[in-house]
Hints:
three-stranded antiparallel β-sheet; 19 strands
Amino acid sequence: xxxxxxxxxxxxxxxxxxxxxxxxxxxxxxxxxxxxxxxxxxxxxxxxxxxxxxxxxxxxxxxxxxxxxxxxxxxxxxxxxxxxxxxxxxxxxxxxxxxxxxxxxxxxxxxxxxxxxxxxxxxxxxxxxxxxxxxxxxxxxxxxxxxxxxxxxxxxxxxxxxxxxxxxxxxxxxxxxxxxxxxxxxxxxxxxxxxxxxxxxxxxxxxxxxxxxxxxxxxxxxxxxxxxxxxxxxxxxxxxxxxxxxxxxxxxxxxxxxxxxxxxxxxxxxxxxxxxxxxxxxxxxxxxxxxxxxxxxxxxxxxxxxxxxxxxxxxxxxxxxxxxxxxxxxxxxxxxxxxxxxxxxxxxxxxxxxxxxxxxxxxxxxxxxxxxxxxxxxxxxxxxxxxxxxxxxxxxxxxxxxxxxxxxxxxxxxxxxxxxxxxxxxxxxxxxxxxxxxxxxxxxxxxxxxxxxxxxxxxxxxxxxxxxxxxxxxxxxxxxxxxxxxxxxxxxxxxxxxxxxxxxxxxxxxxxxxxxxxxxxxxxxxxxxxxxxxxxxxxxxxxxxxxxxxxxxxxxxxxxxxxxxxxxxxxxxxxxxxxxxxxxxxxxxxxxxxxxxxxxxxxxxxxxxxxxxxxxxxxxxxxxxxxxxxxxxxxxxxxxxxxxxxxxxxxxxxxxxxxxxxxxxxxxxxxxxxxxxxxxxxxxxxxxxxxxxxxxxxxxxxxxxxxxxxxxxxxxxxxxxxxxxxxxxxxxxxxxxxxxxxxxxxxxxxxxxx
Length: 754
């Protein structure tokens, strides 16, 4: 079975009907592997780069070159791409790229600069764009054409022209070709002693791709994180397509590579398959140490996307679609610039340069690079292009952006200015944190992620990231924020203490008011009624009601202890929450650990949304009803408003009871007319809170229906009293969200109403 089994869906039949090559027995030179045989094992490596050839085949004879020239180097070459390592520190059979002084080189042919005639075209930015045929890329998608060569051999850098994109679109000039040293090919094993027994052998597909600027972050890990840990409300609006790794693609290898032996029906060539196990190994709770290292397997490569970062696809009428490296940019930095700038389109672990260039309506920042990584601070921009800087022009504050059309990654590669010095230090957790922080920032700015993707992207693109950096405790912003939080805490605590003292002093008055209501109702209906004041105090002599229990000293102590506990827990979870959660999840093993992790995160997100939403609705009800009571002249308006706020945390029942108390107090103070007005006020405010405010702030994130809420409140109250009425609903919501997440991960339908 492959590392990730793909079920049937709208994109294909799934892996159930596919065949996978399974490793059975590794062969070494010598007599140890097969009884009675002494083997000699020899590996051969072949890679091809034919980007220039494909450019001319796509553009035709008007581009100046045709066969047989385009079948020769540098149009098509195999030398200098990759080879078997001779380093004794590496294992035999290790394929390594051939090192070069620069990532790209100007192309030469027959002792002269190799040029071609640029046709009129519709460029993307300032790159020649060779249109695809559907999904098929018959040649490089983007071509660097900004080095114009005159008949006398003089080269002109078109980036010096204000309208470089217009010059490229007009064409009609000769441009200098450049070559990179990427390519695809195969690794073949030759064992002469088994040639008769195994007449047909299979080669391994091999890619030499563009540099990995984030070698410590894998594509597979980004895929799994995006599918299981990103909040569902954000999951589908970060990238246009899911960030699938190359190991999940189901295409045959490059079928145009003569001598490779690749077959059209071998469409699982990039899958990662483990050794067969019979019976399956038992799960253990062994804790594996996490190592930050670069992987060269296809799970660390990006999928094909459109066309992709590491490889593209090609095909022909009546034939299968297959992988091909020649569909990427020529040379690769030309493609890298556009992929990095069009960040939301490319779900690859790759640099996101959207914030480097002027804002574009469809390309917001997704995985922001820091100020140091884009050269705003320091002098090591990853791409050699320093990012935007604030400036002042004619008394107006502006931002000075580098032009996307004039940014030339080929030129920076020739200068040796592209670097991994800073990006190579970004680990998996940090990369994911950047993506999630950016998504949540957009949400905090008011972007509604429940809309369609295009609308969400355009709303995100309204906001440009001018600065992004790690916050240090000594930074002025951190000090200011800490001081503001401390000041806010002092103000809130002070106001809370004053409010608590005032409410405590008004409790006897509230009890007397409710007692008067009891007396009035008894006189009106001619029957004895229980004292409503007992709801607040313990009626009668010797009772221990709320009035006696809540003294000023005790109230102050409880509030101070509550504030201290809340601040301490908040600090603990903010600083050590991820570590605590990882420790807890680490107690489980295998797929159970993944289920617990995904379910726990879903439950936490649901409870957080529930508490935030409930608080906003409770505050809305309390403010609305409190202001109405003040305008109507009802006594104890502040106390009744606070009671409304606190009682609203008991779903369905609490707000109703608090509103009823307000109506009774109004009846006892001013009679039936005022009570009727208060009743209308309570109904109006609570309906607005339930029907307008709650759907807006909670966005239907409570995964249980109203009947289940009422049952939960009742059951919780009967079992645990007030604490049960408060906690049963969020606990039930958390369990429902966790179960839904786990069921979804395993492909099972959720329960009704879940």
